[in-house]
């Protein structure tokens, strides 16, 4: 397996683990890997009456503490724009609040969930 293939497999595994984690926290999963021209949101879920757009980062190497830096301001803007497209395509959620979370999954650190990790100012 090439490194890009291994990285993609780690990412898929992490997104599956994060989906299960969010479900165990009471989230209702609406969409996984929601992709549009504006970007991708790894997981879109409902937490009560709030739409939660979650970016998942999976890391099996050293230094996973710094992984939160991998969600750059540019990546945050793409996630926000893609969330706006989701809301336009799904008007039944128009009155819901929106929150942006990050889940980091490290080989040695397990799951770290950062709720309301950044603001949605696309």
From TrEMBL:
SUPFAM superfamilies membership: Restriction endonuclease-like (SSF52980)
Keyword Zinc: no
UniProt xrefs under Gene3D superfamilies: 3.40.1350.10
Keywords: Endonuclease, Hydrolase, Nuclease
Superkingdom, natural source: Bacteria
Amino-acid biosynthesis in keyword set: no
Pfam families in the record: UPF0102
InterPro entries linked: Restrct_endonuc-II-like, tRNA_endonuc-like_dom_sf, UPF0102_YraN-like
GO terms of molecular function: endonuclease activity; nucleic acid binding
Family: Belongs to the UPF0102 family.
Name of protein: UPF0102 protein Spiaf_1220
Biological source species: Spirochaeta africana (strain ATCC 700263 / DSM 8902 / Z-7692)
């Amino acid at each position: 397996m090439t490194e890009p293939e291994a990285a993609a497999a780690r990412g898929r595994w992490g997104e599956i683990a994060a989906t299960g984690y969010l479900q165990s926290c009471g989230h209702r999963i609406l969409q996984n890997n929601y992709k549009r021209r504006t970007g991708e949101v790894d997981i879109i879920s409902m937490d009560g009456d709030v739409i939660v757009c979650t970016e998942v980062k999976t890391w099996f190497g050293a230094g996973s503490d710094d992984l939160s830096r991998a969600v750059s301001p540019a990546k945050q803007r793409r996630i926000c724009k893609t969330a706006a497209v989701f809301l336009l395509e799904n008007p039944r959620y128009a009155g819901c609040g929106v929150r942006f979370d990050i889940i980091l999954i490290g080989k040695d650190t397990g799951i770290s969930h950062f709720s309301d990790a950044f603001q949605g100012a696309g």
